[in-house]
């Protein structure tokens, strides 16, 4: 039967019985042990929330958005009878499951070569098989076998997210998704929207993180859902917002920028997370620290990504011996790595490098023509743009316990900072010319600097990027 959750962000929310079945599995329950903000809990006392509650919230919001889109569709059936099956009950349930399971692969470890979306798909398969959920899904009307509109494939495709497809009007156009056909392309924009970053995942973690951090959230996701609708854009259906809601969407990116500056990239938070990473590396090298996998076998932390049962146990807890335990003890005693210095590598004006997610990748509709989507012209949004869209930083931390030489290290860093910054900016400008204005930290020269720093036993480094489209 359906279950009601009393959520501090969304109030009383009711979830489908199948979603409750998924929640009541070991693979999903492990998310209770993973803090949403990682090392942020050591800086912000209220940031104790975890991936479990965030995932429940995303599952709820995914259902709210897809149901709102279907309600608007039903209002238009008299004008467009062909839209009768645009969103059906199977679609609604699949979208909710994708929202609920989008973070299943999250872990504190940095060993996995998988992106967290790929790890989530890996864990979703394990959850379904280990708990024999296919018969339950079939009873709920889902299709779990075959190649034609397989709902399990559809759910995993939504978790993975979908990059922008070319227009159906182009000669090179081809629809590459297997879970649903091109007529339902907009469903891929609900959970993980790789086109413009506007999705229910962000709706929940902005609201939830701001609530627990004590930071003002200026973005109203409820208003976005009210004004969202499916519109035709060059022969393809997209989720569009009312043109007057443009300011609300910019508030979303303002909020994201504020969270990155004040919380996600906080220097102490990052020091804690670097220390946890170092503890994981030490634990991986410790022959006494092994994780049980299937059939009674054990494996190291770095090998756990290949074993579903072992991956289920990766929560960032359990450092009980050796050097790993010593590093964790330093965190407990607030004996943290110290910041030596920071270099701002690049700063781009928001929207001036074709990177503005609103004017370039988001569609709107007008009151007088609510079925056709269009882009807002850049000159119409200039007054709403923040001063900076993307930043790159490099931080250097001091790892030794005593700080006798810390001041000397800071002086040395300041001495080479100008030379290093000049060198990095030269790399940035060269890379801009090669990549049409898009900056990537995968530049060979910058990687050489990273490697040099990492080889020094008393130093560690950290890089960050903040922008409106992607988090790294």
TrEMBL record:
Protein family according to the UniProt entry: Belongs to the SAMHD1 family.
GO cellular component, one term: nucleus
CDD domains, alphabetized: HDc
Entry-linked InterPro entries: dGTPase-like, HD/PDEase_dom, HD_domain
Gene this protein is translated from: LOC120435182
One example of a Gene Ontology biological process annotation: dGTP catabolic process
UniProt-recorded name of the protein: HD/PDEase domain-containing protein
Annotated organism of origin: Oreochromis aureus (Israeli tilapia)
A GO term for molecular function: dGTPase activity
HD/PDEase domain ranges (all copies): 47-215
